[in-house]
Amino acid sequence: ASQPAMLQSLGRKLFLPHRKSGSELLSRYYAADQELVRVAQQIKRLDADKQQDRVSELIGELKECQQRVMKLMLELMNELIPDRRHPKDFRMKFPDEVVQEGLEGQLWYASECLAAGSSILYREVEAESIRPLAIQVTREGEKTRRLLRDEASRSYFGAEPRANRRLLDQLALFDRILAEFELSYVSAMVPVKTMTEMDQLQEVAVLFSETAAWALAGGHIRRDDIDECEPTLMIVLPRLAVLHGLLVHPDGPLSTKDRPASKLCPLFRAFHSHLDRVRSFLGKLKQPDMDRLVRRLCLTESGDATDAEADVDADADRVAGLFKVIAGVADQIQSNYAWELRYLLRCVYNLHCSEAVDEAAASAAAATATLAVEEGLDAFDWQVTDSVQSASTLMATAAATGAEASAVEPPAWVPDSASDVCTNRRCGQAFTITRRRHHCRACGGLFCSACTRARRALPVLGFDSPVRLCDACCVSAAAVNENNGDRA
User: Which residues form the FYVE-type domain (predicted)?
Assistant: First the structure.
């Protein structure tokens, strides 16, 4: 029994520290953890009073090491216990600036500071309340690190980490405690929404979604505006949502009938009296005036919610008065509730962009992506080719042979996670919240909106109405459609 232990110790000391370039998660974790231990030991040997600059430099290095170690720990959790990860739905209640990459590493450092006796400036009471949980995070984190180091040594000699029940249980425990500390710590540092506020915000999100569907059907906004995240939607959509909520949903989130201001969603609470007056006047508008009001709300001129009574009571131009109040309410939401508005618009984009509309068809195609074996061909006689070229060849071949549209299946879409940049070689721009991913309906590739502006019908692939195409497939589709026209 002593010989295997000696071999494991030898492997730990001689081999594992030199495997930083290894592909195995555990070996990478071991190297990162050893680096963290080295930096921590250097800090302990320094005199904080005499070497403040060096200590500050090493603390910054320590945070970077903790970030790397925590990132690998999370990857190991996803690899070893994917079904036991603690849910983090509570992050919906956090402001956008809180939920960022590396949050867990920052929480780890904060827990160590609290466990060591530090406090949170101006939040001493909150710091004392979460200190026991911080101590628990630190203690369980050390246990997890120790077990992972030991498992890295064992896996070097062929041991399977999934068979180590103790390690798996410890990873699940640490994940749960870290999530509990995250909720407590963030709640102490920034305002976090209550469940009631989140429910109210969800109701407003439903209203925004229904408003977008109504505006798309009525031609007030275009699908391309949503696909390309047009900035004007930040102005137009909240205005239309106020109008739609007062007209179509008398008992919805904007209802002021028999409802005090305290029961309204915080976004509209300050405008209770304005909404009540606007609702009463909207019922008196004739359809031509209503159409004029909708058209004005789709413009980007500003309104004013402070002169509600004077403007709405003016019989000379009731439409102008209603526009001014509705636009003023919506514009105040944009100014005072920026995070909530981003959340609402994100819900609309996710539900109503072209990608979401075609998601069912795309997911079905991706889930059933198999080799299409044609009659008379060997099932193993296939090769991977460039997706754009294969799509062009597919359309040209189908058009040349006169194949029916139903006989040719469009290619499966490339997953969103496959690329962070536009795959057009002439572009290559990184995807952002404003430069979003779009799929070409012909080749299934990932492109930015600028590289997929073309719209053409593809009957040969089953698309009778114009669909989004990349530049290369647009040229091929034009040639195919021209050939089909000549043949006809």
Answer: 418-473
Q: Cα–Cα distance between 304 and 465 in angstroms, integer?
A: 42
Tokens representing 399?
A: 């058009």
Let me know: does 220 contact 228? Beta carbons within 8 Å.
Answer: no
The 3 state secondary structure assigned to 85-134 is CCCCHHHHHCCCCCCCCCHHHHHHHHHHHHHCCCCCCCCHHHHHHHHHHH
DSSP 436-465: --EE-TTT--EE-GGG--EEEEEGGGTEEE
Per-domain residue ranges for the chain? 2-189, 195-352, 354-369+383-487
Find the helix or strand (DSSP H, E) in which 359 lies: helix 359-367
Single pTM value for the model: 0.60
Q: CA 69 from chain center: how many Å? A: 24
Q: Which class would CATH give 354-369+383-487? A: alpha beta
